[in-house]
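Memo to structure team: turn this sequence into C-alpha cells by end of day. - J.P.
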Amino acid sequence: MRKPVLIGNWKMNGSLQANQALIVRLLPQLRMFRKFMDLAVCPPLPYLFQVRDLLGYTGIALGAQNASAFVSGAYTGEVSATMLQEMGCRYVLVGHSERRTLYGETNQDVAARFRAVMSVGLTPVLCVGESLEEREADQTSTVVANQLQAVIDEVGLLSLAKGVVAYEPVWAIGTGRTATPEQVSMVHQEIRSFVGRDASEASQDISEGLRIIYGGSVKPENAFDLFSLSDVDGGLIGGASLHSEGFGAIAGALAEASGFLTDECETN
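Reply from structure team:
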C-alpha cells in the first residue's frame, strides 16, 4: 500500500510573525494524521530555519520550493541541494509549473535538478502538467510523458520511483478552476502506465509503488472526491496550505479517503 503524502507549498508568502502563528495553529490540526501519511510544508527559503525549529520533532517534514542543479559555484541566487539538506529539508519541489512558465525551466533543467536533489538523499517532488492550450490541443499525454521521460533519461526509472510525482495542470493552479475527478484519474492512470510500460515485473513494481499526488486548486470542498481516486496518493496544496483549518480539513479528507477512520485518528 502506498503511503499517502500531503505537502503544503507556501510559494512566496509569509513573514516571521505570520509563519509562527500558522504553524502554532496547524500542528494540532495535523497531529492526529501524521502516523497515517507523510506531511510536509515548503516555506520560502529565508524562513526554512524558522519553520524547521517550529516543526521540531512533530513528524511534519520541511520542504523547499526549488534547488539548483549544481553543487556550488558562481550561480548567484541559486541554492544547492546540499545546503537544503543542511537546513533540515526532506523534500524539494522540482519543475513546479511556475518555475517552468515564469522562469523558463526546461524538461532537461528539471531533470538535472531532480538528480541533484536525489544525490544528497532528499526526496524530489517532480511536478508535471499541461497548459490550457496543450489540453485543448489534446496534448496532455504527450506533454506529461515528455516531462517524465526527461527525468528517466537523466536518473533512470528506479530513481524516479524514489521520488514523488505531482500532477498539476497549469490551468488549474491559482485560478480557482479544478480538474474534474475524471480528468485527474485519467492523467494519473496514464502516468502510472507510462512508468510501467515495458511490462516487466520490475517495471510493474516500480509503477505500482510510485506515489502520484495531485495539485491544482485543491480545497476542503473537493479534496475527498479527488483523494478517493485509486491512483491519487495525496496532494500538493498551494493557497489552502496557508490556512490551518483548511489544510487540516484537507488532511482529514486524505485520511478518510485512504481508509483511515476519523474516530481512529482522534484516539491517537
